[in-house]
Design a protein that fits this description.
With about 550 residues, this protein is α+β, with helices and mostly antiparallel strands. The protein is about 25% helix and about 15% strand. The relative contact order is 0.10.
C-alpha cells in the first residue's frame, strides 16, 4: 500500500511538472513540404537536435508531433523547456526546398526557472494534454495533490531524468505532507519510479553517455534511420510512410546525424538569423546597388575598428541584398560579433539620408550550448564592442548573446501569452495588422511606402506556398467611413490591411506575424471581410499593389 502511494505521488509530481512546462515545451512548425508524416517530422527533429548537440543528453528529445489536416504545419512537443528553446535555432532548416519555420506558439509561457531542464517522459506527455496545473478539489490527480499538503507547487526541483544534468538549477526545498504518515516531497527522490519512468536521484543511473566527441553513427539515436534514408538498399524508418524523394530530402536534412560536430556549413545555416542586419531608409535615385551597400558598410566598420582583426581580409560583410524598390536591404556578416557591432552605425548617413540599422524581425540568438562550436568555426567573432560575440551595445535586446538578464526595456513587446490567439475559424482573405506603425510614421508618405513594401515582401514570403498578396492599404490620418461597416476612425487607424487571393494564405500570415515585435511594438492580426476592405479602398489610404 505504501509503495502504491509513493508511486502515485511520483506520478502526480510528473503530471504537475508536465502541465506547468507544457506551454514552454511546444513549438509551431510551418512551411512543411507535402508528404511528411508526424513520425517523419519527429525523426527529423530528433536526429538534427542530436547532431547539433542541442539536447541535454544523447537521447531523443521530441515527445510528440501533431499536424493539421493538410500537413502544412503542426506542433512539436519536446521533453524539456531548455531543449525547446534550443530548437528555435533550427528555424530555416531546408527540407525539399522548403525553409521550415520554427517558432513559439501564440500561447507560449515562460516556465518556472527550476523546471527549465526538467525532462518530461513521453508517456507523461501523452497523458497531460493541458497546461492547467491540477489542484485540490477536482478529484483524481487533484485529490492526490490535496493529499500531499500542497507541497507540489514547491516541489518543482524534483526533475525526473534530469538530476545529473550540468547547469541544472538548484532544487527547491519540499514541504512535508504533515499528519498523513507519508514521506515529504523532498523524500520522493528516493522512491522507486513508476514503471517506464527514468530513475530519480538515489537510484542507480543509466550508463553515462559517451563524451560528445566520441560517439559513432550507431551511438546516436535516430542516426540509424538517417543512415537508412541515405542508403537506397536500406529500409525506410519503421512506421514512417515516405516515398523515395522524401527519403532523400529527409536524409539531406537529417544527415548531420552522421557526425556529432556539425560541419561549418551547417552552423552557418543555423546561425544565419543571428548574423543578419536590416538596413532601412536607404536613399533612392542615387544608383545604390547591393555590392555598393556591402562596400560602404565594410569601409565604415573597418574605419571605426568594429571588425574582427583576426581575419586576413577586412571584409566583415559577407553578403548584401536590396528590396524590390531599393528602400531597404539586409546585410549578412561573417561573424555574430561583427553583426552586433554594426548596430553602432544606426543613423549613419548615406546619400543624404540617415540609415536605420537594426535587427531583422526574424532575429534569433544562438543557444549557449552552440557557442563553443561557433567559436571553433570562427562564426562567433571578437570585436571591441562585442567581445567573444557578447552584445555590450544593447544588453537589453531580448535574447542577445551575452546580454545580462533583467526586465525588458521600456516599450518592449509584452509576452505573447497576454495576446489572444488568432481565431482560425474566422479566416478570410483580408488580414488587418495592428500596431505596425506610429502616428508619426502614418503621416509620412515615404515612411509608409517603406512599411507597406516591407510588409508586402514579408507576407509574400510567408504566403508563397498558400497563395499570393493582392493589395495593401493603410488609412491616412483622419480617414473614416461607415461605422456600421466597422470603418470608423478608431477601428481603422494605424492598421495595415492586406488582401490575399486565398484564405489559407491570409491565415498563414496571420499565424506567423501575430505577436511578433516590430520596433518595440507587438503586432497583432485580425481578419476582416472583403466587402469592408472594398469600402476601405474608397477612403484616403496609403496603398500598394501585390
Amino acid at each position: 500500500m505504501a509503495q502504491m502511494q509513493q508511486q502515485a505521488m511520483m506520478t502526480a509530481l510528473l503530471h504537475q511538472q508536465a502541465a506547468m512546462t507544457r506551454r514552454a515545451r511546444r513549438l509551431h512548425v510551418g512551411n512543411l513540404p507535402p508528404g511528411l508524416t508526424p513520425d517523419a517530422v519527429k525523426e527529423l527533429f530528433n536526429a538534427t537536435m542530436l547532431a547539433t548537440r542541442l539536447t541535454l543528453d544523447d537521447q531523443p528529445c521530441v515527445n510528440d508531433v501533431t499536424m493539421n489536416a493538410n500537413a502544412k504545419y503542426g506542433f512539436i512537443e519536446l521533453r524539456s523547456a531548455s531543449e525547446t528553446s534550443n530548437a528555435l535555432a533550427l528555424d530555416g532548416l531546408q527540407l525539399m526546398g522548403h525553409p521550415i519555420k520554427v517558432a513559439r506558439p501564440n500561447d507560449y509561457a515562460e516556465p518556472p526557472p527550476a523546471l527549465v531542464n526538467v525532462m518530461i517522459p513521453a508517456a507523461v506527455s501523452a497523458v497531460v494534454t493541458s497546461s492547467t496545473v491540477p489542484h485540490a478539489g477536482t478529484g483524481g490527480l487533484g485529490g492526490m495533490m490535496s493529499m500531499m499538503g500542497g507541497g507540489m507547487m514547491m516541489g518543482v526541483g524534483v526533475g525526473v531524468g534530469a538530476a545529473n544534468l550540468p547547469n541544472r538549477p538548484a532544487q527547491v526545498p519540499m514541504m512535508p505532507s504533515a499528519g498523513l504518515g507519508l514521506p515529504s516531497m523532498g523524500q520522493l527522490a528516493q522512491l522507486p519510479p513508476p514503471p517506464g519512468f527514468p530513475p530519480p536521484p538515489g537510484f542507480p543511473p543509466p550508463p553515462p553517455p559517451p563524451p560528445l566527441g566520441a560517439p559513432t553513427v550507431s551511438a546516436i539515436p535516430g542516426a540509424a534511420a538517417a543512415a537508412a534514408l541515405v542508403s537506397p538498399a536500406a529500409p525506410a524508418m519503421p512506421g514512417v510512410a515516405v516515398n523515395a524523394a522524401l527519403q532523400a530530402a529527409l536524409a539531406a536534412a537529417a544527415g548531420a546525424a552522421a557526425a556529432v560536430m556539425p560541419a561549418g556549413q551547417n552552423l552557418q545555416g543555423l546561425s544565419r538569423r543571428a548574423r543578419r542586419i536590416h538596413v532601412g531608409n536607404l536613399p533612392l535615385g542615387v544608383g545604390l546597388s547591393a555590392p555598393m551597400l556591402k562596400q560602404f558598410f565594410n569601409a565604415a566598420l573597418v574605419s571605426a575598428s568594429l571588425h574582427d582583426p583576426s581575419f586576413p581580409t577586412p571584409e566583415p560583410v559577407a553578403d548584401a541584398m536590396l528590396g524590390s524598390e531599393g528602400k531597404f536591404g539586409f546585410l549578412e556578416f561573417r561573424t555574430i560579433a561583427e553583426c552586433t557591432s554594426c548596430l553602432v552605425l544606426n543613423n549613419i548617413e548615406l546619400g543624404g539620408k540617415q540609415i536605420r540599422v537594426e535587427r531583422p524581425r526574424d532575429y534569433a540568438p544562438m543557444p549557449e550550448v552552440m557557442l563553443e562550436d561557433l567559436r571553433n568555426n570562427r562564426l562567433l567573432g571578437n570585436t571591441p564592442v562585442a567581445p567573444d560575440g557578447q552584445d555590450l551595445i544593447s544588453a537589453a535586446v531580448p535574447g542577445a548573446v551575452g546580454a545580462a538578464p533583467g526586465p525588458p526595456p521600456p516599450g518592449a513587446a509584452p509576452s505573447a501569452l497576454a495576446l489572444p490567439a488568432v481565431d482560425a475559424s474566422k479566416a478570410s482573405c483580408v488580414v488587418a495588422f495592428i500596431n505596425m506603425m506610429t502616428a508619426a510614421a502614418c503621416s509620412d508618405a515615404a515612411e509608409m511606402a517603406e512599411i507597406l513594401d516591407d510588409t508586402r515582401s514579408e507576407c509574400a514570403r510567408i504566403a508563397s506556398t498558400h497563395g499570393r498578396v493582392l493589395h495593401l492599404a493603410s488609412p491616412k490620418p483622419g480617414a473614416a467611413g461607415d461605422p456600421a461597416a466597422g470603418l470608423d476612425a478608431d477601428a481603422i487607424s494605424l492598421k495595415v490591411f492586406v488582401r490575399f487571393d486565398t484564405a489559407d494564405a491570409a491565415l498563414a500570415c496571420a499565424l506567423e506575424l501575430h505577436g511578433k515585435a516590430f520596433d518595440g511594438r507587438t503586432v497583432t492580426a485580425a481578419f476582416w471581410s472583403e466587402s469592408a476592405f472594398e469600402q476601405l479602398l474608397g477612403l484616403p489610404c496609403h496603398t500598394l499593389q501585390g
